[in-house]
Amino acid sequence: MDFLLSEEQKAMQEMAKNFAEKKIAPTMEEDEKHHHFRREIVKEMANLGFFSCLAPEKYGGTETGYLTATVMTEEIARVSPSYGLPFNLQMNSIQPVLLNFGTEEQRERWIPKLINADLLGCFAITEPNSGSDVASMKSVAEEKEDCFILNGTKMWISGVPVAEIGIVYAYTDRSLKHRGISAFIVDMKAPGVTQKAIETKLGLFCAPTGEIVFDNVKLPKDSLVGQKGDGFKICMFMLDSTRLSCAARAVGVARACKEHSIRYANEREQFGQPIAHFQMIQEQIAEMYVEEEAARLLVYRAAWNRDRGQRNTLEISCAKYFAAEVAVRAANTAVKIFGSYGFSSEYPVERFYRDAKSYQIVEGTSNIQKMIIARNVLGLK
What we know:
Elements: H1 7-24, H2 28-33, H3 39-47, H4 66-79, H5 81-84, H6 86-92, H7 94-101, H8 104-115, E1 121-124, E2 140-143, E3 147-158, E4 165-171, E5 181-187, E6 193-197, E7 209-220, E8 224-225, H9 231-267, E9 269-270, E10 273-274, H10 279-307, H11 313-338, H12 349-356, H13 366-378
Parallel strand pairs: 1-4
Antiparallel strand pairs: 2-3, 3-7, 4-5, 5-8, 6-7, 9-10
C-alpha cells in the first residue's frame, strides 16, 4: 500500500497552495465582508488546469484523476472554503455525468467550456420542499414532439445566480416514482430561467447560492442526458463524485483550524507562559491533529479507489460523513482556543466555524451519510 503522492500530484498540490495564499488570501477579508464572488479567480484556477483532472485530453482534460483533484481542493479550501466549491461546480458534477452518460456531442460541447471556466456550472437537485428525499421533487419536464417543457423551482443551488450551464433533475413520468426522474443539461440564461441569490446564509459568503425558477423553459430534445428515467441513477452517481470533493474541502477546513490554533497557542501567553504549555490545550491540539489525519486518509482512499474505476459509494459516504464532523469539531475547538478572539472576525477561525457547518448539510446530510453507511454494512437494500 503506497501512501505517497506522485511527483505530478505534489506539484499540483504546491501550485494550488501557492495560488490560494497569493491570489485568494490577500483580499479574502474584504471579499467576505462584502459577500463578493470574484469570477476572475475561478478563471485563473481554470488556466492552471485545476478543473481538468477528470476529463480525457480530447476534451481539454489531463485525466490526472480524483486524487489529484482532491489534494488541490484541500489546499484551496484551507484558505477559502468558498473557492473550494468551484471544483464541484466546474469538474466533479457535470463532467463525470457527461463522460459516463452523455452523448459525444454533449461532451464536446460542454466539457471544454467547464474545464476552461468559459461557462460557470451548477447542478440542481434540491427544491423548497425536497432535500434529502430526492424523489419528492416537484419539477416536471413535459415531453412534446420536438422538445421538453421544464417547470419547477430549485433551491439552495450552489453557483446561482452566476451559473451559465447546469445539470437539472426533473420528472418526465411521475407515475414511475424515482424511475421517472430524468436529467437535462440546461442553459441557465435561456428564456424562462430566473436565478435569484440567497443572501441570508450563515457562511460561504464568497460562494454564490440561490434559487432557480423554470417557467415553461423549452429544452431541445438533445438536452436529455442518458435516457428518460435515468435521472435518479445519474444523480446518485454524480453525488458520489461531489461528496468526495466536499470531503476534501472539509479536510482543508480542519487543517486550517489546526494550523491557526497551533500558531495562536504558541504566541498567546497566560499565567506567564504560552498557552501551548497547558495540557488541556495540548489535548485539544492532539485531537485535532489525529482526526484531521484520519479524515484525510479516508478521503484519499476513496479518491484512490475512484481512480481505479470502483463505484465506492460506501467509502465516499464514510469519508464525507467523518470529514464533515471533523471539520465542525476542529472549528469549534479553534474558537475555544482563541477565546474571545475566536468570536471576532479579527481572526479567520470564526469564518471557518460558520463555513464548516455547510459540510454537514450539502451533498447529503451527515444523517443521510450514516444511513447509507448503515444500510451497506447491514446488507439492507
